[in-house]
Amino acid sequence: MIPIAKPVFDDEMISAASNILKSGMVVQGKKVEEFEERFANYIGVKYAVAVSNGTSALHTAILSYNIKSGDEVIVPSFSFIATANSVMMCGAKPVFSDVGEDFCIDIEDVKEKITPKTKAIMPVHLYGQPCDMKAIMDIVEDHKLILIEDAAQAHGAEFAGKRVGSFGTGCFSFYATKNMTTIEGGMITTDDKNVYERAKLIRNHGMPERYVHAVFGYNYRMTDVQAAIGLLQLKHLDEWNNTRIKNAELLTSLLSDIEGIITPKTYPKRKHVFHQYTIRITPEFRTTREKLIEELRTNNIGSIIYYPIPIHKQKLYQDLGFDISLPKTEKIAKEVLSLPVHQSVKKEDLEKIVNVVRG
């Protein structure tokens, strides 16, 4: 089987996790602090706060800016539902934007969606593709908005030589399928000391010291077991990303001449780290997307649709009255299909994938 994702845990990582377990000191401690420092340095920010998962990173970051009921946050609808749900969890309203050909938030649509209630923009660096951060920063500065980057899929991605998660406050996921993993886990990155201090309180029941509760908080802590794995995964991240990029380049070179297939685009100044290699299947292709998925499955090749239903079309949001039209998002959702691109995929695997797609 060529899986769509395959987390890598070598003997050193297994030993590091085992040593933490043997020590009996497994809760948020020195290893978490070390991981936070190393990850902040890697992203290029002053501070990082480790949390339990990517969703809790988003939720905590939004709360740290005191975004609340009556406020609006502009988000793309073409994303995992946690992007919008984290806004709802704070009592604020997600305002859905369309996306462009890069699968990232549509800059012109964002401009149309800004109102006096808009407090923040939350672009998503989807599939490992950095958004156009110059255009987004221009909007943020012009309208004096908060910028929270959903970088859950973009560890190591860059715009103009600067890593995503360092333009505003970044939120990362270390779920098992990500470019680096702690099995579950998340991280907030920021240069804002107030956000940093508040996020540390929120993740630990609002406690500045034991059993003293200064603000309303949650149990969003990361364990030292996760941090020990994360420190070693971080050492390999650039190497693994480079392998993903090379695999993506080979796939694109072999797939780009197939009628009805649109391969993922790369752009000047953007380092795409290919959390997913996502093609689009248009009506000109030899068969339907669903039949291609079955052909791939028959040949022991994993594939998946990220994401078949845009957030604004989910029953949850339909029931809440989000009756809007986002034509580009809705079209793309009917066409996308992700193929294996991770660091464990070999050249012969990629060639097999292409042969099955070609038919």
Keywords:
Aspartate Aminotransferase, domain 2, Aspartate Aminotransferase, domain 1, three-stranded antiparallel sheet, 359 residues, alpha/beta, 14% strand
Structure characterization notes:
The protein is an alpha/beta fold. The chain has two domains: 11-233, Aspartate Aminotransferase, domain 2; 237-358, Aspartate Aminotransferase, domain 1. It contains twelve helices and 13 strands. Helix 2 packs parallel to helix 8 and helix 3 crosses helix 7. The chain is globular and about 65 Å long. The mean pLDDT is 98.
What low-confidence regions span 5 or more consecutive residues with pLDDT below 50?
Answer: none
CATH topology tier name of the largest domain: Aspartate Aminotransferase, domain 2
- Give the ordered list of helices and strands: HHEHEHEHEHEEEEEHHEEEHHHEH
Overall tally of structural domains: 2
Structural class: alpha/beta
End-to-end Cα distance, whole Å, is 19 Å
CATH class of the largest domain: Alpha Beta
Radius of gyration: 20 Å
Which of globular, elongated, flat, extended, rod-shaped describes the shape?
globular
Q: Give the biggest sheet.
A: 7 strands, mixed
Helix content: 25-40%
